[in-house]
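Good morning C.,

I know you're traveling, so I'll keep this short. The sequence:
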Amino acid sequence: MIPLTPMTGDVELLYGNPETPGEPFVMRIRELPGTKVPPHTHPVDEHITVVQGTWYFGLGTEYRQEDLRELKAGSYAFAPAGTSMFGFSPDGAIVQVHGIGPFRIHWLGELATLDDKGADTVFRFPRGAHVRAGDREGTIAEGYRSGSIKQYEIERLNGDRFMADEASVHLQ
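The tokens, ready to paste straight into the viewer:
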């Protein structure tokens, strides 16, 4: 029995190793408030259960807000191997995923982060910049771009983190 407890990282491995071929795995993924998950695929069947919060889940090769379906805590979704999918978490959620490895993510729009060479040509703001997004402010901890989706992971003074689209982020 593994109870739901506050997560300290983005992924918590509960059982198995998702990278081992033929081995079952179970993991919990913490989706920060404001997270948009760009279109991607996995080479394995994916069983998804929302264990906390609300997760919006869509199928397709293009991120389309109107194609997202609401999954409240306790909801289940299934995505067969190779299915293109995307998601959104307006207020944060914990999503539990299980399947048979190897679990890999293939981003349809590639993936760039602030750690990549040439990040200063991809992102407007560097790690450590003090910024405001809406009524929240904090320090940029990470940046992610896949396809047309570009977001920053921002850490508030109290240690909480949230995601914000680049267009909504301004230097403080």
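Safe travels,
E.
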